[in-house]
Amino acid sequence: MNARSNWRVRAQTHYQNILDLLRERGPRGVTSEELYADAVRYGRSPRNRISEIRARGFHVETIHLQRDVVRYVLHAADPPRPPGPVVAPPSTTQPAQPDLFEVNR
């Protein structure tokens, strides 16, 4: 596997490194300057990883500090659980559907 085909693994590693740092820092958060300063650990596009973290249900606040500097603060260590599927119990009044394989034989 060459470096170009390994981008997904690197992106996932950067994602996890940023999430770990946000959890570690708590309410102090982390600045965009810190993330961009360590491209090996956090990647060259840490804001994309922040977007992915949000997409997975984490609440990450962006606080604008200066023109090009923001602070990211994770407000919950774990994402909210998505609601489970609503499944109706099987009805006892409806006849069972015929097996199409058996019908077409």
Number of helices: 5
Coarse structural class: alpha+beta
Q: What does the overall shape look like? A: globular
Sheet of most strands: 3 strands, antiparallel
Which consecutive residue ranges, at least 5 long each, have pLDDT under 50? Answer: none
- Which bin fits the share of residues in helices? 40-55%
Report strand %. 5-15%
List SSEs in N-to-C order. Answer: HEHHHEEH
Number of strands: 3
* Rg computed from alpha carbons, rounded to a whole number of angstroms: 23 Å
Q: What strand order characterises the main sheet?
A: 1-3-2
The span between the termini is 49 Å
Note the main attributes of this structure.
105 residues; alpha+beta; three-stranded antiparallel sheet; 3 strands; 14% strand; globular
Give a quick precis of the structure:
The protein is of the alpha+beta class and 105 residues long. It contains five helices and three strands; from the N terminus they run H-E-H-H-H-E-E-H.
Structure description:
The chain has a domain at 4-74. It has five helices and three strands; from the N terminus they run αβαααββα. The protein has helices at 7-25, 32-37, 39-42, 46-55, 100-103, and strands spanning 30-31, 60-66, 69-74. A hairpin with a 2-residue loop joins β2 (60-66) and β3. α1 packs across α4 (46-55). The longest helix has 19 residues, at 7-25. It starts with 6 loop residues before the first helix and ends with a helix.
